[in-house]
From TrEMBL:
The lineage of its organism: Bacteria, Pseudomonadati, Pseudomonadota, Betaproteobacteria, Burkholderiales. Pfam families: Sdh5 (PF03937). This is FAD assembly factor SdhE. Its main location: cytoplasm. Belongs to the SdhE FAD assembly factor family. It is found in: Cytoplasm. Keywords: Chaperone, Cytoplasm.
């Protein structure tokens, strides 16, 4: 995805997938499609960016996923923006 080495630890990817389970069905559906498409292509950089996004509340995350808001502050870095764009297109 970003040209960095592949995130090869299946346990780390499984934990990330579990953490992506959200309280809002809309977020769950987006993340389920995202992982179905990209899980095995994620790099360590991608996992870090995704982890930062998952630290948001459900509503803040949904606003980003649905393009109601754009990332700000620590989330405005290129890696997080790139992963967010992938999430928005699934």
């Amino acid at each position: 995805m970003d040209g960095s080495p592949h995130q090869s630890d299946p346990l780390r990817r499984a934990r990330l997938r579990w953490r992506a389970r959200r309280g809002l069905l809309e977020n769950d559906l987006i993340f389920e499609r995202f992982f179905s498409r990209y899980e095995h292509d994620l790099s360590d950089v991608d996992v870090g960016a995704l982890t930062r996004l998952l630290e948001l509340s459900d509503n803040d995350l949904m606003d980003l996923l649905l393009s109601r808001k754009e990332p700000e502050g620590d989330l405005a870095d290129p890696d997080t923006k790139r992963v967010l764009e992938l999430l928005r297109t699934v």
